[in-house]
Amino acid sequence: MTHVLEEIASQPDCWRRALDLGAGSPEGLPLPGERVAVIGCGTSLYMAQAYAALRERAGQGETDAWAASELPARRYDRIVAITRSGTTTEILDVLGAVDGGTPTAAITADSATPVAGLAGTLITLDFADERSVVQTRFATSSLALLRAHLGEAPADLPEQAERALAADLPERAVSRRQFTFLGSGWSNGVAAEAALKLREAALAWSESYPAMEYRHGPISIADEGSLVWFFGGADGLLDQVVRTGAATTVAALDPLADLVRAQRLAVELARSRGLDPDSPRNLTRSVILDQP
User: Fold this and answer.
1) Measuring CA to CA, how many Å separate 114 from each of 58, 89, 122?
2) What's a single GO BP term from this record (predicted)?
3) Helical H segments across the chain, by residue range
């Protein structure tokens, strides 16, 4: 079994621990009413986007998600970084440049890394660390923790993940040539992450959009070789997608739990193409840039 399959399968247990930690209100996470920036790179960025939408929906305060390389010179009450490795150059650059009066926190899998010396508060999910280059359980455990801190996470979220591990993949999913993931609200971040998993692990043609934006152009690529996966926003759009000839699937579980099915599809698709989903081409566990 590949490392990533083992890590995908371990998510229910990881989520239980993350939910308990988040419900305990760990020090450093945003307080109600604060204006917050959440930064990440790649998968962590998409988890930041999902959390930002959830926090605003919960009425906790204005929350912006930024790629760490794109954080503007704007005043925030707190900055939260999500970084599995704790070594990503762009994350470290942001935290190293933050005004000393602005509280910062980092969620990481490894406390013995440079981020520990730069973040004001460190939240370590070492139980969710990974050997695979492709992120799965760390990212989803981070979002589970943040959802629990908001009081928004379903109590049965780990059990839903177990159902996603046992559920069938969409019919003939591995034989499709093009994949689109659609979301709405906070599940836009989940949809973006699902598309990234297929690109990383299987070099697949995969895209993501807010569901109601799909009709404004991208639907033109849908045909009998496509799979369109709804994490949200299917109402009023599903019938139009079906008419293109594309196969469809609509999440019956919480979007984070249904992401587990998409992770499984990424691995199966990679295997069908003779690829190693643990070590995608051109990728490393952490992006450390050469300094000028």
Assistant:
1) 33, 10, 11
2) carbohydrate derivative metabolic process
3) 3-9, 11-23, 43-57, 89-97, 137-150, 157-166, 187-202, 211-214, 238-243, 255-272
Q: Using 50, 70 and 90 to split pLDDT, how confident is the model at 283?
A: low
Listed by start position, the domains of the chain span 3-150, 157-272
Q: Which residues contact 255 (CB under 8 A, 6 or more apart)?
A: 183, 186, 187, 190, 231, 232
53 neighbors 76 (Cβ within 8 angstroms)? no
Alpha-carbon span 131 to 2, nearest angstrom: 10
Scan for tokens 């840039």, then name that residue.
289
**If you search the block for the tokens 């009066």, which residue do you land on?**
101
What b/e sequence results for 209-226 when a residue is b if at least 16 CB atoms lie within 10 Å of its CB, and e otherwise? bbbeebeeeebeebeeeb
CB 256 within 8 A of CB 190: yes
Integer Cα distance of 134 and 156 in angstroms:
26
Structure tokens at 8: 């995908």
Query: Could you tell me the CA-to-CA distances from 61 to 10, 49, 55, 85 in Å, in that order?
Result: 33, 14, 7, 28
Give the model confidence (pLDDT) of 213-247 as tens digits.
Answer: 999 999 999 999 999 999 999 998 999 999 999 99
Q: Looking at the domain covering 157-272, what would its CATH class be?
A: alpha beta
Residue among 239, 249, 256 at smallest CA distance from 191: 256
Topology annotation, domain 3-150: Rossmann fold (3.40.50)
